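Lecture 7 notes. Example A: sequence first, then its structure tokens.
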Amino acid sequence: MKKYNADKIAIAHHQNDQAETFLYRVVRGTGIYGAGAMREKDGNLIRPLLCVKKEEIVKYLKDAGQAWVEDASNQDDAFARNQIRNQVIPRLEMINEQAVEHIGWLCEDIKEVTTYLTDQIEESFLRCTKPIGQGFEINCDQLLLENHWIQKQVLKKVLEETAGKKKDLERRHIEDLLTLVENGTGKRISLPYNMVAEKNYQYIKVQKGNISDKQEMTGKILCEEVTDLTNIVENDCIKIIDYDRIETGVQLRCRKPGDFFTFGKDQKRKSLSRYFIDEKIPRQLREEIPLVADGSHIVWIVGRRISEYYKIKESTKRYLKLEFKREGDDSNGEYQSNDFRGRCKQRIAEMGAQISEDYAGKEIHLIAILKGSVFFACELAKRITIPVTIDFMSVSSYGNSRESSGIVKIAKDLDEPILDKEVLVVEDIIDSGKTLNHLKPMLESRNPASLHLCTLLSKPDRREVEVPVRYIGFEVPDEFVVGYGLDYAQKYRNLPYIGVAEEE
């Protein structure tokens, strides 16, 4: 090519060759892309004669007095392609003399269709997958919304890009992966080229090599004995515990077999695994939650709650301040707000994943209780992968005081009926339970298909009326909190974190 200053090589494949290629691939079990046979342009190769029959080329050469060369092996029927050339195509032309032309036209149509389908597959691939490490994470709920054939092509693309090659990736491998998408949680399958696919709830990770069961802990725990608690504000990343309760010392780590947690005033033990299940924490996130442990006894599930056993009491003599910092975070005064954003985002994503799984195949109708829940409801809706509709209701029981008035007022009712709908009431915080105890029966009287409660924060120590809450973001102590939608006399809703309002 350099000698002649050329950038293309012209190959003499003709229409008969195209028909042979099509039939040969079909017999060998090609897919729709292979059925398009040879392309007119393929890299630096061009095939200008694909639209011309062999007989036309031969006639032209004879008329021009031009000699040509044919490969003698073309007549050897020991080769499968030659059997198609010498036996199959002549018989097809006995049925229809334009058989070769018709096959050529079909190949052209197939290539146009596959060009369109390639664009559709790429769009679906971007919607349903995201790159992780040496592979991809598949959102099964999103993928199942796609056309069935598109589903298989997306999975095929995942395997090809993860493996870095197409050879030896067969239809059965795609079918095995599709079965994993449709069924089973916590299942793992092995695939060619040392690939592994593992499903946790609605996500599948496809990666090269073994998928690690343990995540690297990125962060540190700072421990400090303190005597004055006046200026210490507990939050998702700062906790005060009873120092004398520590037996072996504290360690920041991921979970291990045998870990347990104590909860409730009677300090009941519960395995950490059972706690994660009860809290509906997606399996793929359980290994990423940092834990502060005293041996096998979990002191603090960071970002969530501390063990009842280690909580400070009136009898506590020594206090230990625990502060969790993510790797690279030296922000000090800004740490509380920044970490809340990260933890809140993660927790809302977990809740959205669980809601999507619980309501799979249905449409969910969110009722956001104004004004406080708007921040939370909007973020939650964005992380639910099933169809969502939303309505708003204004219900108040506070006024301008720090204590609940016990009087429930409906300032704004729903805009749409909820008859036969899957309803999820979204609150910012539940403390006394009076508001929802009044609201829930009223909404149930409107005959929804189902009705459940969801809240970002729960204040169990303040509960006066027990209400069944299906989804809880965080449990908080008996303090008046503001920020992220929560207010004091209509102020502080816009704070990007949740803090404690103190009287001056």
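Example B, a different protein, same format:
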Amino acid sequence: MVRVAEEQTLAPRAGRREWSALTVLVLVVVLIAVDNTVLYLAVPSMAADIAPSSTQLLWIGDIYSFVLAGLLITMGNLADRIGRKRLLLIGAGGFGVASVIAAFAPNPEILIAARVLLGVAGATLMPSTLAIIRATFLDATQRTTAIAIWAMGATAGAAVGPLVGGVLLENFWWGSVFLINVPVMVIVLVAGPILLSESRGSSALTIDVLSALLSILAIVPVVYAVKHWAGSGLDWSVPVTAAFGLIMGYVFVRRQMRLPNPLLDLSLFRMPAFSGAVAANGLAIFAFLGLLYFFSQYLQLVREYGPLKAGLAELPSTIASMVVILFIGALVARMGAGRSIGLGLSLGAVGLAGICMTVSMSSYWGLGISLVLIGLGIGIAMTLSTDAVVSAVPIERAGAASSIAETAYELGGALGIAVLGSVHLAMYHSHLNLSAGTDPSDAAIAESSLASTVADVADRVVVEHAQAAFVSAVQTTSVVAAVILAVSAVVAWRVIPSPAGCHSRYP
């Protein structure tokens, strides 16, 4: 525990400049998270304006996350090589330019290209923010608080993305969802050079180009497979692309084991604090984004809330994740990281079970309390698991470690939507019990989705049957997610070290 003691006693504490710098970094994180979800509401007006084909529409929605996930590991290592601040500012400039191109795209091809550029820029931003936090906040207690604020930005951005999109689209054209990026990036480019401190690893480290290519070929097909599974169902392309990605992943891992300076240091995963934290990070966002996927639909299609009201109804989880900032340091100091992460995952599981029990009630209060528990739990788990990942490595490798945390976040979110979305769809079909006299065309629409049923079916009885089936599916899916988090909580409690009276997350 010598390293722990040294960090606690010798590390300088951050001052006003460092906390001001954190504000800049959180702005970036919030914006990236918003961009992951804000586009979906804009699809109808965008489709009417530039008339993309069905294939082009899929690429417009998905290419951003494909590029982002595929480049995270490479960009995290590049940040260590050339400087995290430098890469962050380059990425901010690129993100702003790409946003303008996307907002005024005259055709689908230009919009797809702009989304590619947004993904590249986003991949430079996310690991850089975490790495800068690791290098700026050397005091362990302050670093935990800083990462709690960072994690709050990530979860809040994902949650309020649809809300922001709804407000913008009620007043402006579809391109406005991209233009909101520009003023934020201007703030980053103006304040960043003043407030952020540069940090980097060894300039002697080189980036193995083949490893970078293999990481992209490993991650992108897997992300494609799970997103296609969630959006279009299970067909031949899912196992084929997933298998290709896994094969490339195996080749990537084998190469890393032979390189003196690997792109991904696999020895880190031998540390329970690191590997357990990566898993906890991915599973926390798995449950959270999986919940948002079907819960937002439930609010609008079953409770018949408008987009703005639905967004407000989901705010308790966001606010609860913010509250975590107030007590996270005391919690981990008292319980240790592993037990605290286990507690967070347990709270998330209880909240999901609460969704199951209250989703059929007319009152909103039970749902609101359940969302608070989910927000608290996910906030605790994400904060401490992210902290554990970046704290487990030397500062000079902070970018690489941050990229691993971000990759777990992206894969966890994609898998959450795919797996829980598929469970929900299967349960919806199994609970959809229409009478024998139902019009065949109405029955076919009801079988496709609740959204189509509400929009296109005039028979109120069919709509109510579909809504009831959807509620039953929400209940089952919530239980599945709750069980996954509960098992994860037990594993985190037992696997991730929790040294008594010790703030650090690594042995």
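Note on Example B: The chain has three domains: 13-139+152-203, 208-262, 270-507. Residues 460-495 form the longest helix (36 residues).
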